[in-house]
Amino acid sequence: MTEPRVKPAQFTLTTGPVNCYPEVLLALGRPVSYDYDPVFQDFYEALSRKLQKAMGSETMPVILQGEPVLGLEAVAASLVGPQDHVLNLVSGVYGAAYGFWLRPHAASMTELRVDYNRIVTPDLLRQALHEHPETTIVALCHHDTPSGTLNPLPELAAVVREHGALLLVDSVSAWGGVEVSLEGIDVLVTGPNKCLGCPPSLSIVAASPRAWAHMKANPTAPRDSILSVLDWEEAWISGHPFPFTPSVAELNGLDAGLDRYIAEGPETVWARHARTAAAMRAGVKAMGLDLWAAEEAFASPTATAIRLPEGVDETALRTLMQTDFGVVVSSGRAETFNKLIRVGHMGPTAYPMYAVIALTALHGAMARLTDRPLNLGAAIEAAAAI
Ligand SMILES: *Cc1c(COP(=O)(O)O)cnc(C)c1O
After folding, report:
1. Are residues 357 and 223 in the same domain?
2. What is the pLDDT of residues 148-166, one digit of tens each?
3. Structural contact between residues 167 and 211, judged by C-beta atoms closer than 8 angstroms
4. Which parts of the sequence belong to the Aminotransferase class V domain (predicted)?
5. Are residues 218 and 346 located together in one domain of the fold?
6. Considering its fold, how many domains does the chain have in total?
7. Last residue of a domain, one of 231, 263, 295
């Protein structure tokens, strides 16, 4: 008798979108209300207030109806105008891509670039602002996901504040998984589909009073457009018409994701993201592989990028991890493609045992692709010690 073929269980350990929390999946099945129903309008206001509290935002955050690239493009168009001189900080693929949306709206744009395995430091930023005193807006990708590196947001925000420019931050893949204080941040864009464990489809934009004033004074800020942040400013006020139909089902999902985040306690959520990433990094190093980040301190708590050894093809590696071990991870993007693989620690997958699963699959797939001796026992011991 031949043994029946056993299919592996599926573990989606990607850098987003990620599996949703069960509470979120249940909420997606709530009845879809009519957007002019007062019951829905009350729900929308309560949801907006919940989000404001969770983010610690001085003003009411705006929810846009499209996954976070919509929010990023909308904010670029709404905030940046013909009087603005933009300094775009680039430590990875997302930061570089954001320049393409910022540049057309601005009088000028310059970029501060670092290697994609490093981070922007306060000294480099201070120097760049010294060279470009005309800067009115600084843009930063907090966690450049294709590199798995986290920029030091509070320190960079303090430097921007000293200068007086507005700070615009893409924190799509960090907010909710690490502590983010809005102190010194003028616009923060995030989404529910990374660390909040909700499906992709919404953008979240929190803006300071200064940023709202800047957007309102911007002659080129879009109106009557899907890219208009200003159109949605007062959407939370009951009885106020929405600019267009909100994504009712995904708002229900966001509501459940926020409830879970608040009930678990943000500090606890951040701690398990950090712990999972630390276990993963310890395991990778003990196994005999290298982190992508030039220094471990640059590595993000919400994703781990692992440098591929010479001669290992990333597509072959990820395919084996999936077919033989049921573990789905992410590739690099653009400049980081075929140089690394990424394991996400976001929302429901930010539990340290998932690091053990990822390490096991990584080791098993690597063993089929390279003669390099890699030590699974040491990797698991190192991860478990964390
Ligand atoms: C995920 C992500 C986005 C949104 O883009 P996707 O289409 O979901 O890839 C934007 N910025 C960052 C830093 C992200 O990680």
Report:
1. no
2. 999 999 999 999 999 999 9
3. no
4. 105-334
5. no
6. 2
7. 263
Which two tokens mark 110?
């310059």
Q: 185: closest CA among 79, 95, 48? A: 79
| Residue 1 maps to a domain | no
Same domain, 204 and 248: yes
Rounded to the nearest angstrom, the distance between the alpha carbon of 173 and the centre of ligand 1 is: 7
How confident is the model over 21-64, as pLDDT tens digits?
999 999 999 999 999 999 999 999 999 999 999 999 999 999 99
Place of tokens 């001796």: 373
Whether residue 200 is found in the same domain as residue 283: no
- Residue 342, annotated as binding a ligand: yes
What is the number of the ligand 1 atom nearest to the C-alpha of 72?
10
Stated pTM of the model: 0.97
Structural domain span for residue 219: 22-263
Q: Which residues pair with 216 in a beta bridge?
A: none
Number of Cβ atoms within 10 Å of the Cβ of 270? 19
Please report whether residue 357 resides in a domain: yes
Q: Are 196 and 290 in a shared domain?
A: no
The closest alpha carbon to 350, from 295, 280, 287, belongs to 280
Q: Which of 227, 246, 263 is the last residue of a domain?
A: 263
DSSP result, 286-332: HHT-EESSSSGGGB-SSEEEEEPPTT--HHHHHHHHHHHH-EE-EE-
- Nearest-CA neighbor of 68 among 168, 184, 194, 176? 194
- Cβ–Cβ under 8 Å, residues 34 and 362: no
- Between vectors from CA 188 to CA 187 and to CA 189, what angle results, nearest 5°? 120
Entry field: residues in the chain: 386
- Buried b or exposed e, range 138-162, using 16+ CB within 10 angstroms: bbbbbbbbbbbbbbbbeebbebbee
